[in-house]
Design brief:
Shape: elongated
Helix content: over 70%
Largest sheet: none
Amino acid sequence: MTRTRLLNATIESLVTVGYARTTTIEVGERAGLSRGAQLHHYPNKADLLVAAVEHLADERMRKLQKELGPLLKRSAGDPLTPIFDVLWSSYTGPLFWAALELAVAARTDPELKEKFSVLEKRTLGRILSAMKDLTGSGSEEATMVLELTLFVMNGMAIERILDPDDARRKQLLERWKEHVRTVVTASAKSARRPGARPRRAATR
């Protein structure tokens, strides 16, 4: 499908050459399409990038659901380690770098910012919901530490731009994971008590 080829080529371009060098010509060449075919679907860069934001959000969620899905079927075991592994992989892969390029561009582009903000909140909300289901926790404190985990990983991933050595980051993530484990374990135990009604924080 022509639109999909163009949007995949846009993501590839964002990852490979960055936002500034991602032009309609660059994308058309990467997609192997004529200039006319490309312009027929997306007449300018703004239209192309707004569409790419939604496509990127769908791709990120599809990849995470594929990797988190098997975890949801497990009835026993510690879910935090595989959750952390899957999430960290998603924050260090090409789809994250494409999203980062768009996030920076959105700072000064109102139309792109509006679209990106809505879809990013939706994506993070769905990830948070899956994390809560996997850990069996629902208290306000547990929800907050799970949400903070996403922000911690996001910040660490950005820091990788200047320092690609993950050794220290892995140590920090291990320490943070143990803190999260303490909170969500207490939350899950509380939720299993007869008559317990844990207070739930508002989700995105």
